[in-house]
Structures are given as C-alpha cells and as structure tokens.
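Query form — protein DUF1508 domain-containing protein

QUESTION: What is the three-dimensional structure of this chain?
INPUT:
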Amino acid sequence: MNFGSYNKKWYSIGLNTDKQLFIARSKERPELFAESITIQQAIAKLEDLVTLRKHALN
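ANSWER: The structure tokens for DUF1508 domain-containing protein are given below.
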C-alpha cells in the first residue's frame, strides 16, 4: 500500500501503513520524530520532543 507525505513549515507527516501510525518528523532535526494513531497526536508529541530538546540544550 502506498502512503502520502505532507509538508508543513517545520514538520512533515507520513503514514506507516504496516503499523497504521502517523509519523510527524522535524525538518530541522530529522532524528526527532513522533508516532501516533492520529496526525494531531503525532504533532503534539513532536512539539513536546522539540520543546524538551530546546530546554535541555539551554
């Protein structure tokens, strides 16, 4: 099965059809990504990861 990938300003969204999970990935740091059953949850998890990473670096 094919999947789509959608790009926003700071993240991109993909769908893992094997796991049936959406993947939100940071464009600035591609190693940061989050998976969830909804796009909104994946984006929220990614936002949390990015925020934690920024605080850890400061």
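ADDITIONAL NOTE: Residues 5-57 form one domain.
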